[in-house]
Design a protein that fits this description.
The longest helix has 13 residues, at 52-64. The protein is globular and about 35 Å long. It has 92 residues and is an alpha+beta fold. It is built from two helices and five strands; from the N terminus they run βαββαββ.
Length: 92
């Protein structure tokens, strides 16, 4: 089982619908570390780190989002050198 890290930006109606809390719950269910935060442009950005299969599954879940969300795009961003936390956090 290989580990990978992905940074993603989720666009659409993703703020004001509990997206960050849902993302944290789903990531924790999958055993992922990382973070999620709202961006000033109305998108949500997340860092996902864990087993390849778990990250791939989380990307699929992000494409659906929680009830009330309307996801128009999930963009995988170029890798950046960042520290990955040991757990999954909501950043403010």
């Amino acid at each position: 089982m290989r580990a990978c890290t992905a940074t993603v930006r989720v666009r659409g109606r993703v703020q004001g619908v509990g997206f960050r809390y849902w993302t944290q719950e789903e990531a924790e269910r999958l055993g992922l570390a990382g973070w999620v935060r709202n961006e000033p442009d109305g998108s949500v950005k997340a860092l996902l780190s864990g087993a390849d299969e778990a990250v791939a599954e989380m990307l699929e879940r992000l494409r659906q989002g929680p009830r009330g969300a309307v996801v128009s795009d999930v963009e995988i961003l170029p890798p950046a050198a960042q520290d990955v936390p040991a757990d999954f956090r909501i950043l403010r």
